[in-house]
Prior knowledge:
mainly alpha
Amino acid sequence: MWVGTALLSAMLLGLYDVAKKRSLAGNAVVVVLLLNTLFSTLLFAPVILDAELGLGLFEGTALASVRGDVGDHALVALKAAITLSSWLCGYYAIKHLPLTIVGPVNATRPVVVLVGALLLFGEKLNAWQWGGVLLTIVSLYLLSRAGSRESINFRSNRHVWALFAAMLLGAVSGLYDKFLIANCSLHPLFVQSWFGLYQLIMMAIIALVVWMPRR
């Protein structure tokens, strides 16, 4: 059962990268990401309204959320900034690099999260997990050699650097999720719903200040 679920997840993630690549063809990164955050925010808007207005429409369901104080919102806003930075770097990389490079590098993110969990949260890696870390390092080396045959220099290509920045920031975002949920005891749905709204606000500012004047 779990093997099938893992394969389905891998297939959907692959299709997700293909969809991003197609959506960025002939379109500005800022516009695509702005629409992405807009649709995500609209999806979770009922959850925010229900919690803030105390309507109780989702009480007893998986969509029931809670209200947060100023400190909680500040933590979620930081989460939004980290994730949005990762997405901006990642979208620019996907726009300019082949998916044969983007996909394998993105696949190393769980390994970085594992190492971060080891260093920050004192979690232990078993022999298989350490083997996965070493295999990932070897894979990245081989990938850099293969990329050079496509005239992509991993050391000097700014889009490759953006791709690695996206991967590292994505790992930081995952570790920060652990901190918010486990250490700060924030409600998962509160984080998810407000995180999208703060991302939309940030992307709207970026679009107005950075992208619009350069059109």
